[in-house]
Write the structure tokens for this entry.
Amino acid sequence: MDKQEMVYQRLEELKVEYSVTKHSAVYTIEEMEAQGIHREGDVVKNLFLRDAKGKRHFLIVLDKDKKADLEGIRQQVGSTALSFASEERLQKYLRLSKGAVSPLGLLNDNEVMVEVFFDKALVGKEKLGVHPNDNTATVWISFDSLKRVLEESGHSIKYISI
């Protein structure tokens, strides 16, 4: 079973309402916008970060139009200096490749090693756009449903202001 099918199967098991837009591979928000994908809902940006010693890993989820201030995030998550995690770490912890980072990647984090933080502004959104662990599709799902999926996988969601 491929990465996308695993995600869809889990969403079905949890009886989560969602829809899917298939598209060519996208690696940036700009590429998503060029294909018009952003018009269907609120596309999110996902930052996979690590602390200075590489002991803590974070997935920060924010609206595609917001700019992330790593120092401000660092203070809110209570960490040492933050930097973007390597592609090797992304593969190790979320089994994802660059361009496919998604909150749904947390379904691959069976040991719950990655801390997840959502920007408070996303709470209550009806149609968030996230990749199904592959950057050739976008899943549209409500914030509440996404939160439930992640909590069912053992992850507790925390909130920050970006």
Summary: The helical segments are 3-13, 29-34, 70-77, 87-94, 143-152. Residues 3-7+17-160 form a domain with the YbaK protein fold (CATH 3.90.960.10). The longest strand covers residues 42-50. Residues 3-13 form the longest helix (11 residues).
